Structures are given as C-alpha cells and as structure tokens.
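Homework help board

Subject: predicted structure for assignment chain

Our instructor gave us this sequence and asked us to write out the predicted structure in token form, then describe one feature. I got the tokens but I'm not sure how to describe them. Can anyone check?
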Amino acid sequence: MTECKTGQNRIPAQLTLLTIIGHKTGTGGKNSQRLYRGINDIGFIEQPNDKPILIAIFCNESKMTVENTESVIAKMAYYSVSKKHE
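My token output:
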C-alpha cells in the first residue's frame, strides 16, 4: 500500500512529508446518469511518535467532477489527522 502510485490527489494530497501513507484507490464505472459508482480511497496514515490512523473514504455517485471529489477526499484525510491533535 505504501507503493501506491495512483490517487496522489486523494488521501496523500494534503499530508506532510513526515507522514507515512499506505493506501489503495478505487474508481468504479459510470451508472446510467454518467456518474461514477464510486471514487474511493482506503489506507493508513502514520505520523512520527503517534499511533496509525486507519481511514476509508467512499464517495458514491458524486455529482462533482473527479478532481473535485478527490479534493474532498484529501480534505477529509487532512481533517482526520489535524483533529486528532486538538
């Protein structure tokens, strides 16, 4: 999972270089309304001196562009790490 080359605009996009990320992306085919059935990312986030965070984000039939949906996934991953330290 740490070698994943796809989805760099998803979970890893807004996280720092000090973070170890392992993830696996998934993108489903389109339905009859031409919406992707799924734009997903699942994985783990490890930061120095901290326990890993397991994260799974599934976006079903998003009406946004793929790029905007990936941006939402990135923000959710960032939020999950930043809120843990408040």
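Reply (TA_rk): Your tokens look well-formed. For the description, you could write something like this. The longest strand covers residues 20-27. That's the kind of observation they're looking for.
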